[in-house]
From TrEMBL:
<dbReference type="Pfam" id="PF13411">
    <property type="entry name" value="MerR_1"/>
</dbReference>
<feature type="domain" description="HTH merR-type">
    <location>
        <begin position="1"/>
        <end position="69"/>
    </location>
</feature>
<dbReference type="InterPro" id="IPR000551">
    <property type="entry name" value="MerR-type_HTH_dom"/>
</dbReference>
<dbReference type="InterPro" id="IPR047057">
    <property type="entry name" value="MerR_fam"/>
</dbReference>
<protein>
    <submittedName>
        <fullName>MerR family transcriptional regulator</fullName>
    </submittedName>
</protein>
<keyword id="KW-0175">Coiled coil</keyword>
<keyword id="KW-0238">DNA-binding</keyword>
<feature type="coiled-coil region">
    <location>
        <begin position="88"/>
        <end position="115"/>
    </location>
</feature>
<dbReference type="InterPro" id="IPR009061">
    <property type="entry name" value="DNA-bd_dom_put_sf"/>
</dbReference>
Length: 122
């Protein structure tokens, strides 16, 4: 599929896709005789995983490290696992912190709801 089709399916701009290719996140993209990129379903699956890592705030440098390990093959399985486990741990900590913030906001909202009912804040 063309870069335009790939961009449309992934929601990632063509500019960003070219950048990802340049920094090594997208590798071995097939080229047509005219030089245009020809993306595959496998590329869609990979970029969806990359996007998931980005959406969970994994830094691009770590994503590139994961891509390097993936490229190196099965001898890096344990290292890839560790990288993802570390990221998951940080994500759980972040989610717990966000939950604590949400709980405090809900307490404040409840206080205001009560005050609005009474017509004043105690």
């Amino acid at each position: 599929m063309t870069i335009k089709e790939f961009s449309s399916r992934t929601g990632i701009s063509a500019h960003t896709l070219r950048y990802y290719e340049k920094i090594g996140l997208l590798r071995h993209i097939r080229r047509l005789p005219n030089g245009h990129r020809d993306f595959s379903e496998k590329d869609i699956q990979w970029i969806a995983f990359v996007q998931r890592l980005k959406d969970t705030d994994m830094p691009l440098e770590q994503i590139r490290r994961y891509a390097d390990l993936r490229e190196a093959g099965d001898t890096t399985l344990a290292e890839r696992q560790q990288l993802l486990e570390n990221h998951a741990r940080g994500l759980r900590e972040s989610l717990a912190q966000q939950q604590r913030h949400l709980d405090k906001l809900n307490e404040k909202i409840a206080l205001y709801r009560s005050a609005v009912k009474r017509g004043r804040l105690s």
